[in-house]
Specification:
Layout lengths: L1 E5 L2 E8 L3 E6 L11 H9 L2 E6 L17 H10 L9 H14 L5 E6 L1 H12 L4 E7 L13 H7 L10 H12 L6 H14 L4 H12 L4 H4 L6 E6 L8 H9 L4 E5 L11 H12 L4
Helix pairs in contact: 3-4, 6-7
Length: 289
C-alpha cells in the first residue's frame, strides 16, 4: 500500500493489474481492506487495473480533526429532519477521488462504489463525466430522504455498535453485520475482516464525520439525470440499512441504468453472489465501447 498527497490530504491506496482502470470506493467507516482479495483478483484476472483506497477519515488516510455531533446525535437529528453540521460533504470526497486519479495519471476509470462509496461515485459521474467509463452503484440511494432509508429499529440499535471498545470491536462487527446483512452473512469472514481492519487502524472518530457528510449532502436525484456513463445499480432486497427503494430510485434517475437485485443480499457483499455480481459489472463496463 502507498500514500499519496492529493487535494490537501493523504490517501492510502493500492493498485493491482494492468488494463483499463477500475476504481473501487468503499462505504461509511469502512477501510480499503473491506474489499476482499478474491474479489479484487477476479477483476484483475478479467483484465483491469484495479485501484482501491481509504477514503478521508478512514484507515490510514488523513483524519480531518474537526468535531462533529456523535453518531447517535446525528441519527437522532436525521430522524427528526434536522440538519447536521459537517466539515465536508460527499462532493469533497468525490474531489479527493478525482485528485487521486489525477495523481495516478488515470484519465478515465470504471467506478464501483458501495453505499457511501456509491454516493461518491455517482457524484463523480455527473460532475466529471469525461473521467468515468462506467458506473456500478451498489446498495446506495439518491440522497432523496423519501427513498433508501434505514429501518428505524436498525438505527436505534446501530447507535450501540458504531463506537465499540477494543475488546468488543470484532464481535461488535459480527453483531452489526447480522443486523444489516442478509441471510448469507458469514460470521467467520466478518471476524477476519474486522480483525484486519482494527489491527490496522482502530480510530473510529472518522465515522462521525463521514456520516455528517452523508446527511449534509444535497439530494442528487436531478443531477443523476446528467450521467452519461453506462450504469449498473445493484441492491439487496434484504437490506435494512439502505432500503432497496434507494436502488430502484437510483436506477430510475440515471438514464439507461440497469438494475440488478438479489433477494438474499442485505447491506453486505455475500461471497456466493460475487460471480453474478462481477459478471454484471464486467458486462456494464463493456456497454457503449
Amino acid at each position: 500500500m502507498t500514500q499519496i498527497r492529493v487535494n490537501g490530504i493523504s490517501l492510502e491506496y493500492e493498485s493491482r493489474g494492468e488494463g483499463e482502470a477500475m476504481l473501487l470506493i468503499m462505504g461509511l467507516g469502512a477501510q480499503m481492506t473491506a474489499w476482499p482479495d478474491e474479489f479484487i483478483n477476479e477483476l484483475v484476472a478479467r483484465g483491469f487495473r484495479v485501484i482501491w483506497f481509504d477514503n478521508r477519515d478512514s484507515g490510514l488516510s488523513s483524519k480531518i480533526n474537526v468535531p462533529v455531533p456523535s453518531v447517535p446525535r446525528q441519527i437522532a437529528s436525521q430522524l427528526a429532519g434536522r440538519k447536521t453540521k459537517a466539515p465536508y460533504v460527499i462532493a469533497d470526497m468525490a474531489a479527493d477521488t478525482i485528485a487521486l486519479l489525477d495523481a495516478l495519471q488515470v484519465d478515465r476509470a470504471h467506478l464501483v462504489g458501495v453505499s457511501m462509496g456509491a454516493m461518491i461515485a455517482q457524484t463523480m459521474a455527473f460532475a466529471h463525466p469525461e473521467r468515468v467509463r462506467s458506473l456500478a452503484s451498489i446498495m446506495s440511494n439518491t440522497g432523496d430522504k423519501r427513498h433508501g432509508l434505514a429501518d428505524v429499529r436498525i438505527l436505534r440499535r446501530l447507535n450501540m455498535l458504531m463506537d465499540p471498545s477494543p475488546d468488543q470491536a470484532v464481535e461488535g462487527q459480527v453483531t452489526l453485520f447480522n443486523l444489516i446483512g442478509g441471510p448469507l452473512v458469514d460470521d467467520d469472514e466478518v471476524r477476519r475482516s474486522a480483525t484486519l481492519a482494527f489491527e490496522r487502524d482502530f480510530d473510529r472518530s472518522g465515522v462521525d464525520r463521514q456520516l455528517a457528510a452523508v446527511i449534509a449532502s444535497p439530494d442528487r436525484t436531478e443531477r443523476l439525470g446528467d450521467i452519461t456513463a453506462p450504469t449498473l445499480v445493484i441492491h439487496g432486497l434484504s437490506d435494512s440499512l439502505v432500503s432497496y427503494s434507494g436502488g430502484i430510485a437510483t436506477a430510475k434517475a440515471i438514464p439507461g441504468a440497469r438494475l440488478l437485485m438479489f433477494p438474499d443480499m442485505g447491506h453486505d457483499l455475500p461471497r456466493s453472489l460475487w460471480p453474478e455480481m462481477i459478471d454484471a459489472i464486467i458486462v456494464n463496463s463493456q456497454r457503449n465501447t
